[in-house]
Amino acid sequence: MLIVFCPPEFGILMKLLSSEDEIVVGNAALCLGNCVEVPYAALPLLKTEIVQVLLRHTGGDAQKTAVQLNAGIALAKLCTAEPRFAAQLQELHGLEILSSTMKHIVD
């Protein structure tokens, strides 16, 4: 049996992802992306709105593209770590949003 609990650090990262400071948001997304590489670490986030939050930052109009890139990378790692996040992303039409954002960043 696998017992899963949400570490307090994830709560802190979720709060930081809602910051007005883009540098803080970008760094929080980077940290989250690194955390979910640990096996089973992403499971507690299933009960949060992390996919929506990261998608908003990825597809948003941040002044610093590093925020969009870090959020996109964290989102990709999350979807790779746990397929249920990929299903949430699909329900939100996230791939279309990501595709549109990447075209905008490249141009």
Describe, in plain words, how this protein is organized in 3D.
- It is a single chain.
- By secondary structure, this protein is an all-alpha fold.
- The chain has one domain (9-106).
- Helices cover 67% and strands 0% of the residues.
- It is built from six helices and no strands.
- The protein has helices at residues 8-16, 22-35, 50-59, 65-81, 83-91, 94-106.
- The model has no long low-confidence stretch (mean pLDDT 85).
- InterPro entries: ARM-like, ARM-type_fold, TTC12.
- This is Tetratricopeptide repeat protein 12-like isoform X1.
Helix share, percent: 55-70%
What's the domain count?
Answer: 1
Q: What global shape is seen?
A: globular
Number of helical regions: 6
Number of extended strands: 0
% residues in beta strands: under 5%
What distance lies between the first and last C-alpha atoms, to the nearest angstrom? 49 Å
* Global Rg: 13 Å
Output mean pLDDT: 85
Largest sheet: none
What class do helices, strands and sheet pairing give? mainly alpha
Write the layout of secondary structure elements.
Blueprint: H1 8-16, H2 22-35, H3 50-59, H4 65-81, H5 83-91, H6 94-106
Helix pairs in contact: 1-2, 2-4, 3-4, 4-5
GO cellular component, one term: centrosome
InterPro entries: ARM-like, ARM-type_fold, TTC12
Protein name: Tetratricopeptide repeat protein 12-like isoform X1
